[in-house]
UniProtKB/TrEMBL annotation:
The keyword Signal does not apply. It comes from Thermobifida fusca TM51. Substrate binds at T47, E74. Its EC number is 2.7.2.4. NCBIfam families: asp_kin_monofn, asp_kinases, PRK06635.1-1, PRK06635.1-2, PRK06635.1-4. Pathway: Amino-acid biosynthesis; L-threonine biosynthesis; L-threonine from L-aspartate: step 1/5; Amino-acid biosynthesis; L-methionine biosynthesis via de novo pathway; L-homoserine from L-aspartate: step 1/3; Amino-acid biosynthesis; L-lysine biosynthesis via DAP pathway; (S)-tetrahydrodipicolinate from L-aspartate: step 1/4. It comes from the Bacteria. GO terms for biological process: diaminopimelate biosynthetic process; homoserine biosynthetic process; lysine biosynthetic process via diaminopimelate. One of its GO terms (cellular component) is cytosol. This is Aspartokinase. Catalyzes the phosphorylation of the beta-carboxyl group of aspartic acid with ATP to yield 4-phospho-L-aspartate, which is involved in the branched biosynthetic pathway leading to the biosynthesis of amino acids lysine, threonine, isoleucine and methionine. ATP binds at K7, Y8, G9, G10, T174, D175, R185. It catalyses: L-aspartate + ATP = 4-phospho-L-aspartate + ADP. Gene3D superfamilies: Acetylglutamate kinase-like, VC0802-like.
Amino acid sequence: MALIVQKYGGSSVADADAIKRVAERIVAQKKAGYDVVVVVSAMGDTTDELLDLAKQVSPLPPGRELDMLLTAGERISMALVAMAIGNLGYEARSFTGSQAGVITTSLHGNAKIIDVTPGRIRDALAEGAICIVAGFQGVSQDSKDITTLGRGGSDTTAVALAAALNADLCEIYTDVDGVFTADPRIVPSARRIPQISYEEMLEMAASGAKILHLRCVEYARRYNIPLHVRSSFSQKPGTWVVSEVEETEGMEQPIISGVAHDRSEAKITVVGVPDRVGEAAAIFKALADAEINVDMIVQNVSAASTSRTDISFTLPADSGQNALAALKKIQDKVGFESLLYNDRIGKVSLIGAGMRSYPGVTARFFDAVAREGINIEMISTSEIRISIVVAQDDVDAAVAAAHREFQLDADQVEAVVYGGTGR
């Protein structure tokens, strides 16, 4: 019997009516002859509300206790979904992340999955039950404490379970009808992408597209798990994320698959770095030791008169203050002059495997942005991606300009955002 793993985001289980609708969709797959494992997020904005509550009680809540609190949201969802399925005449059993065998590192708030040992899930499936698993959580291999997986953790839970159970398919249900050529909230004329490669989806996720989390796509590519991104609010076909995209008869793949953006980054400029061997290494080692991820890096040519240079880089804005503190500790040792910090930036990225064989894509992108009067502060490229940093207020205009330039608009409006703020 084929096995499907489904994941439902917060907007898909936001209230009692939504949970009943999800239960009907799950039961329909069971009736069709599939074994079904379901991963659920917390209802609506529950996680954010729990975080706010924790901050009201304690300005710096301990990581262990915060994880214990936040995982309650998914436990509520899993139990309610199991109850709704029971009302439809089918047996459902709910499992926490630890009961499902999701074993993680011990880093509270952003643990990584080490292994999945889904013995209890297999037993329940063998007995004909539908399994409902709390996403976003696991248990530490070392301390045996409850841990959370960070942003997109439920997506990652679903794909990890699909890999461990040798599932035929992993369906990710969200509040839009698939992966689009741009965020429909910014570009209402964005077009649904029927198929996209793991490679392109990884670049889109890394560039700010929030439809799938980066770790989830990495996991799917590693274990070659087909992902089907769909809306739980409609029956539309969604988007398939696969290893190789099939070319439509008579048509080549488009040059550009989509335009992604990210407003969650900040920029730090280390001013007046001595142009000596090892200074850049010292700067980025200090950041690595503070567990700060760096994205784009630009180093200026050193001034002949001073033999000093400036190094600019982008990083997640919520890591900005930690990064500044880490760099100030090594200022005397490295000998740089000062630090500049700017969190009013945004990243806009053009993604497409087709650009490998088409010259001039970069020029067209930059020209489209320039026609809008937008200044580019930084540039970064990969084989299938071009990213620029612009002022935060210019992000929407840059996304729309790039989308128009590469003729990504749909003939009619396809993009509908059903679920409001939830995933």
